[in-house]
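hey can u check if this looks right to u? its 168 residues, i copy pasted from the old doc so theres a chance i mangled smth
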Amino acid sequence: MKFEEAKEKLHNIAYRDLQTKPYDLKLADVIQILNQIKLDKPKPEVPQMIFDVIKSFDDDVDYLHHHMSRQSDEVREWLTHNEREFYEAWLAYPNITVEKEKLYTVEIPNPNSDLKLILVKVINELKLISVYENELEGYSNIRVLTEQEIRKDFDWAWQQKFAKEVAE
């Protein structure tokens, strides 16, 4: 039920007969209708790093402001450009959602060989390995990487557009 529908139902209950006055509404009727309302507004969506900040400072905004200078450059940069979104999410906490980070695979072209050069994550470390195309499926669970992971040590691969977004 939408908000406007709820208002209409309450109006109909309040004026169901000519003798009824709006203040004669029963609390139980009002609560029953309010419980049926599905908010039109979606939950605020923030990156994981911002969710973590909100979660750790959810009770005390003064403490939050005091500790902002100790946040990572990435968090402060996001806050600089998304201040309103931050406060909306902070006020809505815990009713917020975490943005899903885009995932990528990196394959370096190798025209002189049947082998493919792919970037994989092994024990939290990225490595370039050579595999045959028919073996690619076997590496699917260690091939998906975030932009941040790729750019940390293989920014050249990102710049050359070797990273391809993974379709969900």
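Helices lie at 3-14, 27-34, 48-56, 61-67, 73-81, 83-92, 140-143, 147-159.
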